[in-house]
Structures are given as structure tokens and as C-alpha cells.
């Protein structure tokens, strides 16, 4: 009892200290200052650290003393954290082959076309709705009588999205047949942190830049991915990939130069938006690479990955929100503006449903079809945002958008042609043998 009361007092003191420090910094910098996002980012990282460090110590001690191999129900959670399963060993016979899990059946052309229509419609509706609501929540004012105010806590939106995605994927796992899970839960934490931070940067960036600018920046994700691959693993790229990167850069430059009338503030604000976009691209690139490594090493299904990452994201974001008082602020805001509750729930539902449609589309039709659908969705998102929120696009800005999407579709086409030539070469060489 004495130990528990000591831990409670330490936690209370830590939370009160964080609130006092946060309040003091906000008084100096200002809640609505152009650089206030830096303070929020620092406290978000500190909140994640309070979860990450104790878990790291627990995992280190457990591996050192083999605590996860002990019998008894109390060690099952620890075993799940370290091995990904509550049993000590998983026989290879328990692992379902990929062919059995996917269970791809032969379908008629009509059934395939109908399935593609459902996937395409699901992706477009989910993410178009998500984009519109995301921009509304972060950039528009909510009115309560004579008082108007904006919602500022990006992390609460990330938490709501993640917890609903966790429930969606968890229910899907319960009603469907999946591989035996063998991925240690703690390994999800790395891409979970980067995933939540990329989403955080994405929401925060909307305070400083327009939604169309953010969408085009996402299209430019190929550039940091190529640079990271070149620096980290000395990856080699085809000529058309370099041309794609250059065209995207030219298109982005033309769009930004042609959208001067849509700026939301001074140079500092524009710089803050650019920094947050860079943060989004960096964190998102790490997430994709880490998840790819987990798929290769432990071979989880996509839904298992979705459930595991969102579970860890819920733990990190909830701990940070509790320490910063984010739940109190968000619930207080929701009580003053009931429509915010509906916007928030619709955003979370559309995001979670969109993730399920992503996995369904990739499993049924492959990544190329999925990429084309999502590229079209990005173009429609820009068009819809400009229509609803009156973003101005000059001729140069429109030309920049056209160049970016032309580069993306060209990259998809040449990648398919290269893959086809490679397969033809393999077939010819095998037929000669």
C-alpha cells in the first residue's frame, strides 16, 4: 500500500509540474502564437516518453530474467507484449498459409467489377468526408451564442481516430480467420509513435496552410522516401523515378507560387506550416518502412497490424492527453459546441472505415489499383476543398496540380511497364532452359 501511494503521489506531482510548466510557457509565448505548436509538440513527446520508458525498462528486465517464460495467468500479458502470443511457442502448423487466409475465389467479370466499384466508392466517400471534416474542425470557428472559438487540440482528434480504428479492427479480427499472431506488441510502439506524430503534424499544419497545399505535399512523399532510401540503404532508382520526383517538385513549386492569395498569415506562419509538413513526411516515411520490416519479419496480417498499431497509439495519446489536460479541454469544448461531437465522430468513423477499405482493396486488386484510386481521391479532395472553403487557385496553381498528378500517373504506368518487361525476361530465360 505504501508503494502504491508513493507512485500515486509521484504521478500527481509530475502532472501538476507539467501543467505549471506548460502554463508558464504559454504565458510567455502565447496560446495563439505562431510558434505555440512547438510547445505542444514538446509536451506531446514528453507524454509519450512517460509510457515508452517504463515499458522499455519492463521489457529489458523481462528478457534479462526470462520473466515472460514463467507459468501463470499473471505472465500472459507480459508474454503477449514480448512474443505477440500468450503461449510460449507457436508451431508452424498453427500458422495459416497466405493463400488460405486470403481465400481468393474465382469470380465472374461482373462480380469483380461490382467489388471494385464498392471498394472505390468506399475509399472515395470515406476519405473525402474525412478530409472535409478534418479541415472544418481545425480551420473553422464554432459558434455558441455570441462567442466563437476554434478547436486547437490536434492530439484529441488523433486519439478519437485511433481508438475507433482499434475497435473496428478488433471486431474484424474476432469475426474473421487470421494467422496466429506472432508479432511482439512492443514492436508496434515504434511505428505507432511515428504514426501518431505524423497525424499530429498533419492536423497542426492545417492551422498554417490550406488543405490543397497539404494534399499536394502528401503527393510529394516519394521525394523524402527516395532520399531516405539513398542515404540509409544506398538504394538505386530507375530513371523514371527520378523524373517523377523532379516533376512533383516543379508542380509543387508552381502550385505554391500560384496560390499566394490563399496564404493564412505572415512568413513565420508559412514557415511553421512548411516545418510541420516536413515533420509529417518524415514520420510517415518511417512508419511505412517500419511496418514493412514487421511484415517481412513476423508476417502479421494487415488487420493485425492495424489493430496492434492503433492499440499502442491509444495508450500513448491517452497518457499524453491526461497529463496535459487535453481530455478536460476537449470535453469542455464539446459541451459548448454539440455539433463538434458529430464532426469528431464522423471524422473517426470515416478514417477507420477508410483503413478497412484500404486493406480490402489491396488484398483484392493489388497496390497499383489502390494507388490509382487514392490518387484520384487526392485530386477530388483538392477540388472539393476549393469549392466548399473558397480556396483560390490561379492558372499557375492549377498547372502545378496538373503536373503533380501527371507525374504520379506516369510513375504508375512506367512502374507497371518495367514490371511487365522483367516478367517477360524471366519467362524467356526459363523457356530457354
Automatic annotation (TrEMBL):
Keywords: Membrane, Transmembrane, Transmembrane helix, Transport. InterPro entries: SCL35B1-4/HUT1. It is found in: Membrane. The keyword Cell division does not apply. It holds the Pfam family UAA. The chain crosses the membrane at residues 37-59, 113-133, 156-175, 240-258, 270-290, 311-333, 339-361, 368-390, 396-414. It comes from the Eukaryota. Belongs to the nucleotide-sugar transporter family. SLC35B subfamily. PANTHER family: ADENOSINE 3'-PHOSPHO 5'-PHOSPHOSULFATE TRANSPORTER 1 (PTHR10778:SF13), SOLUTE CARRIER FAMILY 35 MEMBER B (PTHR10778). This is Adenosine 3'-phospho 5'-phosphosulfate transporter 1. It comes from Daphnia barbata.
Amino acid at each position: 500500500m505504501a508503494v502504491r501511494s508513493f507512485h500515486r503521489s509521484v504521478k500527481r506531482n509530475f502532472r501538476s509540474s507539467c501543467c505549471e510548466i506548460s502554463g508558464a510557457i504559454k504565458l510567455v509565448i502565447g496560446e495563439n502564437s505562431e510558434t505555440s505548436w512547438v510547445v505542444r509538440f514538446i509536451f506531446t513527446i514528453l507524454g509519450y516518453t512517460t509510457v515508452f520508458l517504463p515499458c522499455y525498462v519492463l521489457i529489458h528486465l523481462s528478457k534479462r530474467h526470462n520473466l515472460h517464460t514463467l507459468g501463470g495467468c499473471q505472465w500472459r500479458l507480459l508474454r503477449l507484449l514480448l512474443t505477440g502470443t500468450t503461449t510460449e511457442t507457436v508451431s508452424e502448423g498453427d500458422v495459416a498459409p497466405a493463400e488460405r487466409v486470403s481465400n481468393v475465389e474465382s469470380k465472374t467479370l461482373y462480380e469483380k467489377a461490382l467489388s471494385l466499384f464498392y471498394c472505390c466508392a468506399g475509399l472515395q466517400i470515406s476519405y473525402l468526408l474525412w478530409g472535409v471534416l478534418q479541415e472544418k474542425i481545425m480551420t473553422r470557428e464554432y459558434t455558441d451564442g455570441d462567442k466563437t472559438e476554434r478547436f486547437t487540440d490536434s492530439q484529441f482528434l488523433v486519439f478519437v481516430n485511433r481508438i475507433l480504428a482499434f475497435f473496428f479492427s478488433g471486431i474484424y479480427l474476432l469475426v474473421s480467420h487470421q494467422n496466429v499472431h506472432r508479432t511482439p506488441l512492443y514492436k508496434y510502439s515504434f511505428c505507432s509513435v511515428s504514426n501518431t506524430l505524423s497525424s499530429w503534424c498533419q492536423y497542426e499544419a492545417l492551422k498554417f496552410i490550406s488543405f490543397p497545399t497539404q494534399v499536394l505535399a502528401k503527393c510529394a512523399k516519394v521525394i523524402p522516401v527516395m532520399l531516405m532510401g539513398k542515404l540509409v540503404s544506398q538504394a538505386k532508382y530507375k530513371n523514371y523515378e527520378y523524373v517523377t520526383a523532379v516533376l512533383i517538385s516543379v508542380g509543387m513549386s508552381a502550385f505554391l507560387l500560384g496560390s499566394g492569395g490563399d496564404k493564412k498569415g505572415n512568413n513565420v506562419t508559412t514557415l511553421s506550416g512548411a516545418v510541420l509538413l516536413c515533420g509529417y513526411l518524415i514520420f510517415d516515411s518511417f512508419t511505412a518502412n517500419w511496418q514493412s520490416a514487421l511484415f517481412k519479419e513476423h508476417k502479421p496480417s494487415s488487420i493485425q497490424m492495424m489493430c496492434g498499431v492503433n492499440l499502442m497509439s491509444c495508450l500513448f495519446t491517452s497518457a499524453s492527453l491526461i497529463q496535459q489536460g487535453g481530455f478536460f479541454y476537449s470535453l469542455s469544448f464539446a459541451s459548448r459546441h454539440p455539433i463538434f461531437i458529430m464532426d469528431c465522430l464522423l471524422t473517426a468513423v470515416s478514417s477507420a472505415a477508410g483503413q478497412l477499405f484500404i486493406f480490402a482493396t489491396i488484398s483484392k486488386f493489388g497496390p497499383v489499383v489502390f494507388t490509382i484510386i487514392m490518387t484520384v481521391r487526392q485530386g477530388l479532395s483538392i477540388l472539393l476543398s476549393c469549392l466548399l472553403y473558397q480556396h483560390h487557385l490561379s492558372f499557375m496553381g492549377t498547372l502545378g496540380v496538373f503536373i503533380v498528378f501527371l507525374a504520379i500517373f506516369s510513375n504508375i504506368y512506367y512502374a507497371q511497364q518495367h514490371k511487365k518487361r522483367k516478367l517477360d525476361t524471366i519467362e524467356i530465360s526459363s523457356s530457354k532452359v
